[in-house]
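Homework-ish question, so no full write-ups if that breaks the rules, but can someone show me the predicted structure for this set?
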Amino acid sequence: MDKKFIPSQVEERIYEFWEENSLLKAKNGKPFTILMPPPNANASLHAGHGMYTVEDILIRYKRLRGFSSLWIPGTDHAGFETQYVYEKHLAKQGKSRFDFNRQTLYDNISKFVKDNSGLIYSQFRKLGFLADWKRSVFTLDKNVLETVLGTFTKMEKEGYIYKDEYIVNYCTHCGTSLSELETVHVERKDPLYYLKYGPFVLATVRPETKFGDTAVAVHPKDRRYKKWVGKEIEVKGLLGRFKIKVIEDEMVDMKFGTGVVKITPAHDPNDFEAGKRHGLEVKRIINIDGRLNELTGPYVGLKVKQARMKVVEDLKIKGLIEKIDENYAHSVTVCYKCGRDLEPTIIPNWFIKVKELKKPVIGVIEKEKIKFFPKRYKKQILQWLKVMHDWPISRQIAWGIRIPVWYLVKDNENKIWISFIDKNREFKKGTIGQYLDKSHSLSEIKQGLQQVTVPIYKREKVKYVVSVKEPQDGQDWIQETDTFDTWFSSGQWPLVTLSKEEYKTRFPTDVMGTLADILPFWVSRMVMFSLYVKKEIPFKNVYLWSKVVDSKGQKMSKSKGNVINPIDLVNRYGADAFRASLIFGTGSGGNVPLAEEKVIGMRNFANKIWNIGRFIWMNRSVILSETKDLLRMRDSNKLRDSSAKPQNDIEKALKNLQKEFAEEKKKYLRFMDSYKFSQALGLVYEFLWRRFADYYIEELKSRLNTLGLTPRIGSELKEELRTGKIRVLDELQNVYFENLKMLHPFIPFVTEAVWKVFKGENSSILLERLKS
RNA sequence: GAGCUCGUAGCUCAGCGGCAGAGCGUUCGAUUCACAUUCGAAAGGCCGAUGGUUCAAAUCCAUCCGAGCUCACCA
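A: Not a homework solution, just the prediction itself:
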């Protein structure tokens, strides 16, 4: 054995051993199953992925406890995220997604993902993860598509899916709508404009939307404006005079501004709701490219911000601005990805009605059929479920699972809007009828297709069918271009990962471990889909781990320059040290600070484990080789008298050691079974280092020394004590071995390396059992 | 506005009714000994504040102060 444990010399070999000897696969026993949260297929390992260690700990622990533990990995296509990355990549080449038709864009991204995937699995291997890589599932695999499309079809048939023109947060830069959860609210100061509006003055931060106003609202209790309610007022505006209705609505805050609000249903979520309540016209004046449209007269084509400046300027000239509050602080909704202001926009979207679907979810969580660790997340998810509203599942991006809806072309030529690149590589946009008439064939359109938009028509709806393949009925159909929100497919992760056989024995799975951040996005939806499709919970326990932050508790980000590359740490200090540093001394929830000093500390711990083994190994080998001699000299009476007392002391110490160990183990099992990994590791750390090494070994050494013995090599070993010493080492060794097993889930490499020293190259601690 | 969490050693945080703890850092000391990636020792604390429950409170309850997160709203 080397003086030091050198991870880089053994880790790779050990991992290969596990892999070659099928130790990554499930063995016989009672099933224990974890589905790995799928990282983005094109991702590379970041510090946060290190927390997957928690799942590896469970897998290894359960294996040692005799379970048939199975960890199934996978990767996610991560629609929006990936397309975003890819578009940045395109931008570097001076291109954009609009230069390609949909299919080509999809194929290019697909290739991009393939080229960049696989990296993260090799990094996971470096961390020692005992997952069955051969079983990896990708969220665009055939069987996943079947399930996901099947669920959609079922939901549509049963009335849980509807299409609606709804106001959604739309990022004009990223070109897609976002769910509420994908938005970020930031506090900001913007000018608040007080506009003269007929007989009123009203305050707004968005004067450029005034062309879309279809009412003015006041509070029902506001006496100041009572006489106007229900009447039309005449307003002088930038485009001339117009009449507008005054309505009353509780949403108005009498104290804010002048107590009068303009209602712009097409461009504000609250106004949209108000518009619904009062049956107002939805007048859209900003297109989805973020520019004002022809209804705004001279402002057509301007982007929102430019338009605002121009409108304000013109209003000033006309004397229509009373005052401007330059320091108005409010919060703005921005894109979580690019940080730009979101434009509340009306676009046709596919929705899932969640009112009925979420009821059983709340039920199983309240009844604790699914348990949360730490417990407080139960409250959080329940709170979130209560406010959960219908889920928009359409995304206007190419990289994803295309929604299996086909629109009938016939009779709808003027209702289906398309954009495509024609055979002369020209970009075309308009209704499908416009082009079919002009010698563009449907197949040409389909080939160059970028986007299909079918607005909601109240009277004559556009006929569509839900079908995975194009309907073969001789009629012309064109498929929806929207794709599913990534969470729609990853929400079905527990439904696509196991084999048919395994659904009988391994479902519900045992533990779902994930970052607390995605509790609402992912966990609640997995439960929802599972209860809907399988009438069964998808997992029994949810373990929420914490965010990995830097040593000062700051979130890691490139701009702050505090990003720590985990592989770097692994290369320098070993996978064990990295893993343990994420677990040791960390609490439940919040953040896990990752500091190099801590990794070093854990490296030292791994080395300590190694050296305790080395001590036992060196002395044991000596004894074994000399046992014969020693036995022959048993009757020697030399030192007999003086040996009596220390011998008894050693016996006593051993008894204490056994007692302490029994207590340690009992506690350990309790901690492990209640997912208190940090405490379990801390316990063994304390026991092995502070008690076993610093106290018992040191004590024994010094007592042997008082007899003129050093527990060292060959000739220096005095025979008189051998009987006692053999026992000493035997007992030390057993306690040590048990502790190796207990530590193995946390620091698999060093424990396995030591094991192999004692039991041979072909042995593995993973084949051992940790008994109660 | 609502909910949740956290204030414990210089730093990062465990502990969550029964002697105030760990890692890192600091100071002093040891060294042919399994390990200097080591060992021994020390300094460092009104456990955010106040009140309550209790034989006993860092721990439970209430209020307050401070920090953070999430959700909702904001013309």
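Now go work out the reasoning yourself. Hint: The radius of gyration of chain A is 34 Å.
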